[in-house]
Write a structure and sequence with these properties.
Layout: H1 3-7, H2 9-23, H3 28-36, E1 65-68, H4 83-95, H5 97-118, E2 124-135, E3 150-164, H6 169-235, H7 241-276, E4 299-302, H8 305-310, H9 313-334, E5 339-350, E6 362-371
Parallel strand pairs: 1-4
Antiparallel strand pairs: 2-3, 3-5, 5-6
């Protein structure tokens, strides 16, 4: 520390006041007051939600076995053990536009939370430096003999102002911002669940259409053979023309199904391309043709009803939004009370820059105050 700084009592006093203003949040006594001081307004508590503790038993004749588990973030699509489905959902997570929008809303909420938390520290922190040069007129009659007509003024310093959160307004603002961050996170999960469900349904629908196209092709070959047999039997006089007409009708109906299935498959691919955020022209590259339909495993692992309810993102988001409203009540109630603040300034001022940091050039101000909206 420079020697001139230690020689000036007034400078040390102003510096200690300002440093105390800046570091009040860090000292143990202030921290004790900060955590134990009662805030105005109601405190939030999670509402009771009576639900069943277990599922009813599954009949023995059912082939599907349900087991209970505690997993809350189950990647349910992995139970199908389909690498192409897993790859598609991974691609969906990074490219879907709605998911990207929800993600940036989370980032926005986090930054707003950081802004609210910054109010725990001095709300105004300003470093300044000013140089003024003044030339007085020699013919104005306003100058005294012996006084200089040219005046230089150098000054530098630091100003700070801090509002004491006596009633908890700032702390509740932070809690409300944190609750809003959680709301946006659950909103993201809600969008993710919806989009993944739609994408998985389209995936299974496309695979089903592929299977139906294959089966329609097999039926067409069989019915072509049936028509050939019916024509030969008619030509030999064993049957009448009705059997031939019936075989032709069945064959034409099967042939008409294939374009319908192909059109439905292309429409599903286009919808899947929209979810994945790729052009419809690239829809054909999303899935390989003639893939197998995902099979449901004979054993499913789920949680108890209470856990399943708590996994719903929309319910979790509503609960966090309610908690945020509790904090907003406290913020509004704190406006009934006065706010107390402390302002301070520490600096140096001299007519020559060489004397700016000397002890006699020091200046300091400490100004506590309050404001009350009557």
């Amino acid at each position: 520390m420079p020697e001139f700084f230690m020689k000036s009592r007034r400078l040390r006093f102003a510096a200690l006041l300002l440093l105390g203003l800046l570091n009040l949040n860090g000292c143990s006594s202030a921290r004790y007051w900060w955590t134990n001081n009662k805030m105005v307004g109601p405190n939030y508590s999670e509402p009771a939600a009576p639900v069943a503790e277990q599922f009813s038993e599954v009949a023995e004749k059912d082939s599907l076995v349900v087991e209970e588990a505690d997993q809350k973030d189950l990647r349910w699509w992995t139970v199908f053990d389909d690498p192409e489905l897993n790859s598609m959902i991974e691609q969906l997570s990074g490219q879907n536009l709605s998911l990207q929008t929800a993600y940036y809303r989370i980032q926005e909420a986090r930054h707003l939370r950081n802004i609210a938390a910054a109010n725990l520290f001095p709300q105004s922190q300003t470093a300044k430096g000013i140089y003024n040069h003044r030339q007085n007129s020699r013919n104005s009659g306003g100058t005294f003999p012996g006084f200089p007509t040219t005046i230089d003024d150098w000054s530098t310093g630091f100003d700070a102002s801090w509002e004491i959160d006596l009633w908890g307004r700032i702390r509740r603002s932070i809690a409300a911002a944190e609750a809003q961050v959680e709301v946006t996170q659950h909103d993201y999960d809600d969008v993710f669940v919806s989009i993944v469900g739609d994408a998985a349904a389209l995936f299974v629908q496309i695979r089903s259409l592929d299977e139906r196209i294959v089966l329609a092709g097999k039926n067409r070959k069989i019915q072509e053979g049936s028509l050939d047999i019916a024509e030969k039997r008619f030509n030999e006089g064993r049957t009448d023309k009705l059997d031939v007409y019936q075989a032709e009708s069945n064959l034409n109906s099967t042939r008409a199904l294939v374009p319908q299935f192909e059109l439905a498959r292309q429409q599903s691919l286009n919808a899947l391309a929209v979810l994945l955020g790729v052009p419809p022209s690239e829809a054909s590259t999303i899935m390989t043709p003639n893939g197998k339909i995902p099979q449901i495993p004979p054993q499913l692992v789920v949680g108890i009803p209470a856990d399943l309810i708590l996994q719903r993102p929309d319910i979790l988001a509503a609960e966090r939004a309610m908690a945020r409203q509790f904090e907003q009540i406290g913020i509004a109630e704190a406006e009934f009370y006065p706010t107390f603040s402390i302002s301070g300034s520490l600096g140096w001022q001299a007519s020559k820059i060489s004397n700016l940091l000397e002890a006699p050039s020091s200046t300091g101000v400490i100004a506590p105050g309050f404001r009350w909206n009557i």
